Amino acid sequence: MKSLSLKRLVQKKEVHVLLQDTILSLGVSITIQDEDRQWIWGTPLELSQPEYPIQVSGKILGWVGGDRKATAIASLLSYLAKQELEKKTLANETLERYKEINLLYEISGKISTCLDVQAIANLVLDEARRLIAATSGSLMLFNEESQSLQIVAAFGIDSPSKMLMKLGEGIAGNVLLSENAEVVNGVQYDSRFLPGPHPVHSLICAPLKTQSRVLGTINISHADPIQYTAADLKLVTALASQAASAIENALLHEYKLKEERIKSKLERYLAPQIVK
What we know:
- This protein is of the alpha+beta class.
- The chain has two domains: about 5-90, no CATH class; about 115-265, 2-Layer Sandwich (Beta-Lactamase).
- Helices cover about 45% and strands about 20% of the residues.
- It is elongated, with a radius of gyration of 29 Å.
- The mean pLDDT is about 85.
């Protein structure tokens, strides 16, 4: 809980005044030390005098020294610290939500008019690489004929076009089946992980899911033992959602173009009414 400083909390004007009033009303002499035993309030008391912890969620932030009445001060500071932590958590969640919305807006603007699958995949991976620490990454689409995942775009991977993964094989193959995004920190301890030519320690894998089907997965990884977080997972999942929608539109466009080409060829040899 390094983000919450007991010293800063006590130095807040409203908290400082509240402490003074409470100490005065209780008629008690106290000291306050932080978790590193630095003095925040008062002068050192006799070593024989008891201390009472200031804590939030089991984490000790400091101690109040004094007689039994000092327990009220410790309880008050614990309560104020809990409130402060909740405010910080809410502020962080709001900021993360703003980042996610902003990300969706930006990426949507970039890929909404793009009808090339390769270009969409590269744009999404570039955005993921910009936002999240990674040494390698890939976007894989499921091939119905071969029943395998094939890499469409990648970075930090040699000869990605040769890499195939069967349905239910590896972490990506399992994510494709479960349709649930995952963070795997320490992939070497995951029985599903299939080692490749490039070192991987931490991995985020999210399905490219539309309303009707799962098109593939997006995979972001790092060779070093970093710890991907729930916030990282949310960002990759948001990117995957945007990518899936754009790729589905691009695939539909490609299918229509293919139909038009076939129709055009047939019209050369057959009567127009038969082709229709």
